[in-house]
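Ops channel
N.P.: pipeline sanity check, posting one input/output pair.
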Protein backbone atom coordinates (compact mmCIF):
# COMPACT_ATOMS: atom_id res chain seq x y z
CA UNK A 1 0.00 0.00 0.00
CA UNK A 2 1.27 3.49 -0.90
CA UNK A 3 0.27 6.68 0.91
CA UNK A 4 1.22 10.32 0.50
CA UNK A 5 1.87 13.00 3.12
CA UNK A 6 2.61 16.66 2.44
CA UNK A 7 4.69 18.55 5.01
CA UNK A 8 4.46 22.36 5.14
CA UNK A 9 6.11 24.97 7.33
CA UNK A 10 4.46 25.80 10.63
CA UNK A 11 3.51 29.27 9.37
CA UNK A 12 1.28 27.57 6.80
CA UNK A 13 -0.53 25.37 9.31
CA UNK A 14 -4.24 26.23 9.32
CA UNK A 15 -7.45 24.67 10.70
CA UNK A 16 -8.80 23.69 7.29
CA UNK A 17 -5.79 21.97 5.77
CA UNK A 18 -6.53 18.77 3.83
CA UNK A 19 -6.18 15.58 5.86
CA UNK A 20 -2.93 14.43 4.24
CA UNK A 21 -1.13 17.71 5.00
CA UNK A 22 0.81 18.21 8.25
CA UNK A 23 3.00 20.93 9.70
CA UNK A 24 6.74 20.46 10.13
CA UNK A 25 6.75 20.41 13.94
CA UNK A 26 3.84 17.97 14.18
CA UNK A 27 5.46 15.64 11.65
CA UNK A 28 8.76 15.58 13.55
CA UNK A 29 6.97 15.08 16.87
CA UNK A 30 5.03 12.13 15.46
CA UNK A 31 8.22 10.47 14.27
CA UNK A 32 9.97 10.97 17.60
CA UNK A 33 7.03 9.62 19.57
CA UNK A 34 6.66 6.60 17.27
CA UNK A 35 3.16 7.78 16.47
CA UNK A 36 3.71 6.87 12.82
CA UNK A 37 3.31 3.17 13.57
CA UNK A 38 0.16 3.27 11.47
CA UNK A 39 2.34 3.31 8.35
CA UNK A 40 1.50 0.32 6.24
CA UNK A 41 3.58 -0.19 3.14
CA UNK A 42 5.36 2.77 1.56
CA UNK A 43 4.73 6.38 2.56
CA UNK A 44 5.80 9.19 0.21
CA UNK A 45 6.63 12.46 1.96
CA UNK A 46 6.65 15.69 -0.08
CA UNK A 47 8.11 18.92 1.27
CA UNK A 48 5.85 21.91 0.67
CA UNK A 49 6.37 25.63 1.21
CA UNK A 50 7.40 27.46 4.36
CA UNK A 51 10.27 25.19 5.42
CA UNK A 52 13.70 26.78 5.71
CA UNK A 53 16.98 25.01 4.84
CA UNK A 54 17.75 24.10 8.47
CA UNK A 55 14.31 22.53 8.86
CA UNK A 56 14.77 20.60 5.60
CA UNK A 57 18.02 19.15 6.94
CA UNK A 58 16.39 18.33 10.26
CA UNK A 59 13.44 16.66 8.57
CA UNK A 60 15.74 14.53 6.43
CA UNK A 61 17.71 13.52 9.51
CA UNK A 62 14.58 12.66 11.48
CA UNK A 63 13.31 10.43 8.67
CA UNK A 64 16.65 8.63 8.33
CA UNK A 65 16.85 7.99 12.08
CA UNK A 66 13.26 6.95 12.58
CA UNK A 67 12.06 3.40 13.06
CA UNK A 68 10.17 3.73 9.80
CA UNK A 69 12.97 4.99 7.55
CA UNK A 70 12.71 1.96 5.27
CA UNK A 71 9.06 2.66 4.66
CA UNK A 72 9.40 6.38 3.94
CA UNK A 73 10.35 7.87 0.56
CA UNK A 74 11.28 11.53 0.98
CA UNK A 75 10.78 13.85 -1.99
CA UNK A 76 12.60 16.97 -0.86
CA UNK A 77 12.66 18.90 -4.15
CA UNK A 78 16.15 20.10 -3.34
CA UNK A 79 16.60 22.86 -5.95
CA UNK A 80 19.25 25.51 -5.50
CA UNK A 81 17.96 29.02 -4.97
CA UNK A 82 19.14 31.70 -7.38
CA UNK A 83 21.90 34.01 -6.18
CA UNK A 84 20.95 36.99 -4.04
CA UNK A 85 22.59 39.31 -6.56
CA UNK A 86 20.28 38.06 -9.32
CA UNK A 87 17.12 39.09 -7.45
CA UNK A 88 18.65 42.08 -5.64
CA UNK A 89 18.06 40.73 -2.14
CA UNK A 90 20.28 40.83 0.94
CA UNK A 91 18.69 37.98 2.91
CA UNK A 92 18.67 34.38 1.67
CA UNK A 93 15.25 33.71 3.23
CA UNK A 94 13.69 36.40 1.04
CA UNK A 95 14.62 34.64 -2.23
CA UNK A 96 11.54 32.95 -3.67
CA UNK A 97 12.75 31.04 -6.73
CA UNK A 98 15.02 28.03 -7.18
CA UNK A 99 16.17 25.71 -9.96
CA UNK A 100 16.04 28.39 -12.66
CA UNK A 101 16.66 26.91 -16.11
CA UNK A 102 15.86 27.49 -19.79
CA UNK A 103 13.07 25.34 -21.23
CA UNK A 104 12.91 26.83 -24.73
CA UNK A 105 13.98 29.83 -26.79
CA UNK A 106 13.62 32.86 -24.51
CA UNK A 107 11.53 30.74 -22.14
CA UNK A 108 12.50 29.76 -18.61
CA UNK A 109 11.21 27.79 -15.64
CA UNK A 110 11.85 27.79 -11.88
CA UNK A 111 10.39 26.37 -8.70
CA UNK A 112 8.64 28.51 -6.11
CA UNK A 113 10.46 28.11 -2.80
CA UNK A 114 8.99 30.03 0.14
CA UNK A 115 11.04 30.12 3.32
CA UNK A 116 9.09 30.21 6.58
CA UNK A 117 11.05 33.32 7.58
CA UNK A 118 10.40 35.19 4.33
CA UNK A 119 9.52 38.82 4.97
CA UNK A 120 6.17 38.47 3.17
CA UNK A 121 4.80 35.53 5.19
CA UNK A 122 5.59 36.70 8.71
CA UNK A 123 2.16 38.19 9.32
CA UNK A 124 -0.31 36.65 6.86
CA UNK A 125 -3.23 34.93 8.58
CA UNK A 126 -6.16 34.79 6.13
CA UNK A 127 -6.75 31.24 4.97
CA UNK A 128 -4.64 28.34 3.78
CA UNK A 129 -3.02 29.80 0.67
CA UNK A 130 -0.01 31.78 -0.50
CA UNK A 131 -0.77 35.49 -0.53
CA UNK A 132 -0.93 37.57 -3.68
CA UNK A 133 2.01 39.67 -2.48
CA UNK A 134 4.24 36.57 -2.37
CA UNK A 135 3.14 35.67 -5.91
CA UNK A 136 3.87 39.18 -7.19
CA UNK A 137 7.31 39.24 -5.57
CA UNK A 138 8.10 35.78 -6.98
CA UNK A 139 7.19 37.05 -10.45
CA UNK A 140 9.37 40.12 -10.02
CA UNK A 141 12.28 37.96 -8.89
CA UNK A 142 11.76 35.56 -11.79
CA UNK A 143 11.87 38.32 -14.40
CA UNK A 144 14.89 39.89 -12.74
CA UNK A 145 16.83 36.64 -12.35
CA UNK A 146 16.19 35.64 -15.97
CA UNK A 147 17.45 39.02 -17.14
CA UNK A 148 20.49 39.02 -14.87
CA UNK A 149 21.51 35.45 -15.74
CA UNK A 150 20.65 35.18 -19.43
CA UNK A 151 20.61 38.75 -20.76
CA UNK A 152 23.45 40.32 -18.78
CA UNK A 153 25.33 41.42 -21.89
CA UNK A 154 22.56 43.88 -22.74
CA UNK A 155 23.45 46.24 -19.89
CA UNK A 156 26.67 47.96 -18.91
CA UNK A 157 28.42 46.15 -16.05
CA UNK A 158 30.19 49.22 -14.66
CA UNK A 159 27.96 49.98 -11.67
CA UNK A 160 25.84 46.88 -11.70
CA UNK A 161 22.38 46.91 -13.26
CA UNK A 162 19.32 48.87 -12.27
CA UNK A 163 15.76 47.76 -13.05
CA UNK A 164 12.86 50.15 -13.57
CA UNK A 165 9.35 48.72 -14.03
CA UNK A 166 7.11 50.67 -16.42
CA UNK A 167 3.97 48.52 -16.33
CA UNK A 168 2.64 45.42 -14.61
CA UNK A 169 -0.58 43.66 -15.57
CA UNK A 170 -1.62 40.74 -13.35
CA UNK A 171 -4.52 38.30 -13.33
CA UNK A 172 -5.16 35.89 -10.46
CA UNK A 173 -7.05 32.82 -11.66
CA UNK A 174 -7.00 30.43 -8.71
CA UNK A 175 -5.78 30.02 -5.15
CA UNK A 176 -2.14 29.01 -4.87
CA UNK A 177 -1.55 26.61 -1.99
CA UNK A 178 1.76 26.18 -0.09
CA UNK A 179 2.74 23.09 -2.06
CA UNK A 180 4.87 22.38 -5.13
CA UNK A 181 4.55 25.23 -7.65
CA UNK A 182 6.32 26.34 -10.83
CA UNK A 183 6.97 29.69 -12.46
CA UNK A 184 7.49 30.16 -16.19
CA UNK A 185 8.79 33.25 -17.96
CA UNK A 186 8.90 34.25 -21.62
CA UNK A 187 11.19 37.20 -22.21
CA UNK A 188 11.76 39.48 -25.18
CA UNK A 189 13.85 42.58 -25.78
CA UNK A 190 11.54 45.38 -26.95
CA UNK A 191 14.03 48.20 -27.44
CA UNK A 192 17.57 49.47 -26.91
CA UNK A 193 18.46 53.07 -26.13
CA UNK A 194 22.18 53.49 -25.53
CA UNK A 195 22.85 51.99 -22.11
CA UNK A 196 19.16 51.25 -21.59
CA UNK A 197 17.40 48.09 -22.74
CA UNK A 198 13.66 47.50 -22.50
CA UNK A 199 12.13 44.08 -21.88
CA UNK A 200 8.73 42.46 -21.75
CA UNK A 201 8.25 39.34 -19.64
CA UNK A 202 5.16 37.13 -19.65
CA UNK A 203 4.97 35.05 -16.49
CA UNK A 204 2.76 32.31 -15.13
CA UNK A 205 2.56 30.55 -11.79
CA UNK A 206 1.33 26.96 -12.07
CA UNK A 207 0.29 24.29 -9.62
CA UNK A 208 -0.65 20.79 -10.74
CA UNK A 209 -0.61 22.03 -14.34
CA UNK A 210 -3.17 24.76 -13.62
CA UNK A 211 -2.39 28.47 -13.90
CA UNK A 212 -2.88 30.24 -10.57
CA UNK A 213 -1.70 33.65 -11.76
CA UNK A 214 -0.26 35.27 -14.84
CA UNK A 215 1.35 38.63 -15.52
CA UNK A 216 2.94 40.78 -18.20
CA UNK A 217 5.71 43.07 -16.98
CA UNK A 218 7.48 45.77 -18.99
CA UNK A 219 10.72 47.06 -17.56
CA UNK A 220 13.97 48.77 -18.47
CA UNK A 221 17.46 47.67 -17.47
CA UNK A 222 20.25 50.20 -17.33
CA UNK A 223 23.68 50.76 -15.91
CA UNK A 224 23.46 51.01 -12.14
CA UNK A 225 25.27 54.34 -12.00
CA UNK A 226 22.89 55.82 -14.58
CA UNK A 227 19.92 54.60 -12.56
CA UNK A 228 21.35 56.02 -9.33
CA UNK A 229 21.92 59.36 -11.04
CA UNK A 230 18.32 59.49 -12.33
CA UNK A 231 16.97 58.47 -8.93
CA UNK A 232 19.04 61.07 -7.10
CA UNK A 233 18.01 63.85 -9.48
CA UNK A 234 14.31 63.06 -9.17
CA UNK A 235 14.59 62.72 -5.41
CA UNK A 236 16.07 66.22 -5.22
CA UNK A 237 13.22 67.53 -7.36
CA UNK A 238 10.62 65.98 -5.04
CA UNK A 239 12.34 67.35 -1.94
CA UNK A 240 12.44 70.86 -3.46
CA UNK A 241 8.78 70.68 -4.43
CA UNK A 242 7.74 69.43 -1.00
CA UNK A 243 9.81 72.09 0.73
CA UNK A 244 8.30 74.78 -1.47
CA UNK A 245 4.79 73.47 -0.86
CA UNK A 246 5.40 73.30 2.90
CA UNK A 247 6.56 76.92 2.95
CA UNK A 248 3.44 78.04 1.06
CA UNK A 249 1.19 76.15 3.46
CA UNK A 250 2.91 77.67 6.50
CA UNK A 251 2.59 81.18 5.00
CA UNK A 252 -1.14 80.69 4.35
CA UNK A 253 -1.68 79.40 7.90
CA UNK A 254 0.12 82.40 9.38
CA UNK A 255 -1.92 84.81 7.27
CA UNK A 256 -5.14 83.16 8.41
CA UNK A 257 -4.07 83.29 12.05
CA UNK A 258 -3.33 87.01 11.83
Amino acid sequence: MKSTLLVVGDRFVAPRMPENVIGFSAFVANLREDRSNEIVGERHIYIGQGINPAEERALRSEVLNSAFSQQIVLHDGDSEKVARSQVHKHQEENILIAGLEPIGEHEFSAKLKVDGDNELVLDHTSGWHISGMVILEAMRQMAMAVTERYYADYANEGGGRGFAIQSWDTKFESFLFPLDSTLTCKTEVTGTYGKRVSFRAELSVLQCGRVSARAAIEYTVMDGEVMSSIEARRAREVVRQLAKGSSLVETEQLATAV
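N.P.: looks fine end to end. The beta strands are 2-8, 21-23, 42-47, 72-75, 97-104, 107-112, 161-172, 182-193, 196-207, 210-223.
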